[in-house]
Amino acid sequence: MNKKSLTILTLLLATGLILLGCASQGSLAGLKGTSWKLISYGPVGKQTPAAVGIETSLEFNAAGEVDGNLGCNSFSGNYVMKGGNVIFSQIISTMMACLGPQMDQERLALKVMNDMVRYQVQGNTLVIYGADGVNAITFSKEK
Questions:
Q1: Whose CA, among 20, 86, 102, 109, lies 20 to 30 Å from 138?
Q2: How far apart are alpha carbons 50 and 42 in whole angstroms?
Q3: Closest CA to 114 of 95, 138, 139, 137
């Protein structure tokens, strides 16, 4: 993917998330104050392990802000909890290009976080399911 395509994809993602952020306000209960590390991504039931040696993070603060790094670029934005769903909005990201699995996992993770999505916490594991029902991202709890 060239730099222009990545820029366009990022802008489309940000626009969609901004519109979703206007749609609903809800409780921040559930994920607030938690920090996670990506452990796998991809199709539900057939996930790919996160790239070895690449630091990843996903942090939800109590004020409704989310930030992290899913493989290559740092990002930040807002989140709202609504029942068993989370709505990500106003996501902005740096725009470095990385090779191979770093970019693959980041691209898919941001795609999953592109709509109101269902999430599930079981013990120290967080799974965020894409709106398409096909893909998910799985994290382990950091703190």
A1: 20
A2: 10
A3: 137
Predicted local confidence at residue 25, as pLDDT: 35
Domain ranges of the chain: 3-141
| Model confidence pLDDT, tens digit, residues 3-58 | 665 555 454 444 444 333 333 333 345 789 999 999 999 999 999 999 999 999 99
Q: List, for residues 91-138, the tens digit of each pLDDT value.
A: 999 999 888 889 999 999 999 998 799 999 999 999 999 998 899 999
The fold of the 3-141 domain, in CATH, is Lipocalin (2.40.128)
Q: What gap in Å lies between CA 16 and CA 76, rounded to an integer?
A: 15
Q: What is the pTM of this model?
A: 0.77
**Structure tokens that stand for 45 in this block:** 């039931």
Nearest by Cα to 41 from 131, 133, 121, 129:
129
Beta-strand ranges (E) seen in the chain are 34-43, 48-49, 57-60, 65-69, 74-82, 85-93, 117-122, 125-129, 135-141
